[in-house]
Design a protein that fits this description.
The chain is an alpha/beta fold. It is about 45% helix and about 15% strand. It contains 13 helices and eight strands. It has a four-stranded parallel beta sheet with strand order 3-2-1-4, with helices on both faces. Strands 5-6-7-8 form a four-stranded mixed beta sheet.
Length: about 300
């Protein structure tokens, strides 16, 4: 597998993590053939890589033969850049993959953007994967949920469980930190990749979602990607784009603010703001609840403080 420039040497796993990984491998072998719901993130990448290592690969069912197939759900809520990276990694490893078109955005339950929006998204994805499983006689569908996900409010996990999806990482007790250790041990360049939620997560609950809005958010975030930023969110607030980034990246924002403002306005926003509270997962929740601790200030105003 090709080593990325940013990747360091593979690490040695602890005895505890090694035992968990061996348990996961044994479980995957017992399934004989698996479809992996693969997004390109570190969790599903580890499941994909380990499944392929243990079972080999085949793109379609072959009687009782074993094998692994990575399925990438493709829709407007999934950034094109993420799809390209996911495909590149699958190609690099050699895992057979398939792009599976999903249309969750056409479901009124999803488009209304309720608190349990993820339930309808994952229902759509796993319904499509279940069809493949039945038509081609695969053993199971599995996902990248891990032991650190337990206890969080994750409607998508409910949808997966209702459809018989297995979570090899979670079932082996492998935590998020251990997932990254395993990914690095296996030489996966995504071992330190930041978490990447779907584009719909940038929209406050209750604000309707459609494909045009998702494309607008994606175009705005592509501006930040072009600057080499890795961890960020462009939160949507009608005409306002609220940028969430780690404070360490603020200097790069300030140094390139004219380019950023122009690019994000070209995507369709009237105002561009920088959230001084920095990046945090679920950053829309506090705003939706009227929490004032999220300090919003336009980039132009922030720059004026330095003049």
């Amino acid at each position: 597998m090709t080593q990325s420039a940013s990747q360091t040497a593979a690490t040695t796993l602890s005895a505890e993590t090694t035992a968990k990984l061996e348990a996961m491998c044994a479980a995957l072998r017992s399934y004989r053939s698996v479809i992996v719901a693969y997004s390109g993130g570190v969790d599903s990448a580890v499941v994909m890589a380990v499944a392929y290592r243990e079972l080999g690969g085949r793109s379609t069912a072959a009687g009782d033969g074993s094998g692994a197939l990575a399925c990438i759900g493709v829709s407007p809520s999934y950034p094109a850049r993420e799809m390209r990276d996911a495909v590149a990694l699958a190609d690099d490893i050699g895992v057979p993959y398939r792009l599976v078109e999903t249309e969750e955005y056409l479901d009124p339950n999803y488009a209304a953007n309720p608190n349990n929006r993820c339930y309808f998204c994952k229902s759509e994805l796993h319904n499509r994967l279940h069809e493949i499983l039945q038509q081609e006689d695969w053993g199971i569908v599995c996902d990248g949920a891990n032991a650190s996900d337990v206890g969080d409010d994750r409607p998508g996990m409910v949808a997966a469980r209702e459809r018989g999806v297995r979570s090899p990482l979670l079932e082996a007790g492998i935590t998020k930190a251990e997932v990254r250790d395993i990914a690095r041990h296996l030489g996966l360049p995504v071992w330190d990749k930041p978490a990447m939620a779907c584009l719909s997560s940038r929209v406050p609950h209750g604000t309707p979602i459609d494909s045009q809005l998702l494309r607008q958010i994606e175009a705005a975030e592509d501006v930040l990607v072009a600057l080499g930023l890795r961890q960020f969110r462009v939160r949507h607030h009608d005409e306002i784009a609220r940028l969430e980034l780690p404070p360490d990246d603020f200097p790069k924002i300030l140094a390139n603010y004219e380019e950023i403002v122009a690019g994000i306005k070209a995507a369709g926003y009237r105002y561009v703001t920088l959230d001084l509270a920095g990046f945090r997962s679920g950053g829309l929740n506090a705003t939706a609840n009227g929490n004032a601790e999220n300090a919003l200030i336009s980039v132009d105003e922030l720059m004026s403080f330095h003049q």
